Structures are given as C-alpha cells and as structure tokens.
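Sorry, I am new here, but would you mind making up a protein's amino acid sequence and the tokens describing how it folds?
***
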Amino acid sequence: MKTLQAVLDINVLVSALWTPAGSAAEILELVLTEKIIPCFDDSILDEYRNVLSRPRLALPKPVFNALIREITNKGISISIYPGKINFKDEADRKFYDTAKFYEAYLVTGNTRHYPKEPMVVSPTKFLKIYKKNL
C-alpha cells in the first residue's frame, strides 16, 4: 500500500482536539502513528500555531506545541508559490496549493470553500479512501 499524503485544514485539527471520538481525531491518530504523511508549508504551520493558541480553545501551550512538533517531525514540508485560482478567503489558498503541489488529499470540514476536485475531501471521505487502500 502506498502511504497516503494529506494536508490537514486547521478545522480538522480543532475538530480532532474537541471531539476525540470523531473522524478528525482518527485522522490525527493516523498522522501520529505514521500511517499517513502530513504535508505542509511554513504558512500552514503558522496558522496551526495561531489558531491552536487562541484563548477560546483553552489548549495548554505544551499540548499544541507538541502536536505541531509531531506533525512537523512526521510530515514533509516545502515552500510553495500561490496558484492562480481565486479564493473568497485567501487564508484557504495555502492548504489547497500545498495539496496540489504534493498531489495529496486536502482534508477539510469545509469542502465548499475549495474547488470541487477529487483531492478535496471531508474527514469521513478521507477515512473511507484510507481504509480502501489498506
């Protein structure tokens, strides 16, 4: 089996931390056990840090720092250049462009924010793809 690569939208990480029994948490566990490879660039890591450190999430700094460190250690990173597709929210671009570059899945709870492409999938859909590839 080829190890799947995935770009995790920040909403997937937040969902994984808030709902430990959900699909997003299962995907995070696959990352932490090196069954899927997370793909990212510096701007994605910056967004992870920014969002996960927000007071309303109430995550202890060591918890989100350890999570980001694990993703960084288990994943692959490269600097990318912005693509030509227009986004309503330019903050979404980095996830899409990174997934395109790596030919990875973009796993997001907001599929409607992205172009309709087979690589843009919900956490539930990604788990079905993962299990089918076992």
Notes: The domain at 4-132 is CATH 3.40.50.1010 (Rossmann fold). The chain has one domain: 4-132. The radius of gyration is 14 Å.
